[in-house]
Amino acid sequence: VDARNIDGSTPLCDACAAGSAECARALLARGASANPALYSASPLHEACMSGANVNAAKLHETALHHAAKARNADLVQLLVEFGANVYARDNRGRKPSEYTWSSSPAAKCFEFYETTPLSLAQLCRLSVRRAAGRRGLARMAELQIPPRLIRYLCYD
Description:
Layout: H1 11-18, H2 21-29, H3 43-49, E1 57-58, E2 61-62, H4 63-69, H5 73-81, H6 105-115, H7 120-138, H8 147-153
Antiparallel strand pairs: 1-2
Helix pairs in contact: 1-2, 1-3, 4-5, 5-6
Family: Belongs to the ankyrin SOCS box (ASB) family.
Pfam families: Ank (PF00023), Ank_5 (PF13857), SOCS_box (PF07525)
Protein name: SOCS box domain-containing protein
């Protein structure tokens, strides 16, 4: 299930890039590595770049709540970069930051994001990506804007 294609990505990476949650679940159920060693983007990066909803909630918990509980500062940073809401509340009324230890790297990451607004450029990128939707993201390269801006919008 972790066989590589010519680009070096795994079937899970391809499923995430295509937005196929059903396929991704099936691969994970059969033992696919969620964090394979890659030369390019991880399955999570692929899913985010392909327009996955980083604020999707299951029982009022978002991926950011799970990242906080795992005390994974890198994951917190990645999710916030792709638009995760640091103020989202779960069914207990708790923000993700309330699941971290005060001295942990994840807590420091949340403290930064809760007190420092995203840059205007980042807010614009998130707004354009939301407005484009999943189908629009696939056609981003067709926009009549400078290639550098297209790369920025696509996280390249």
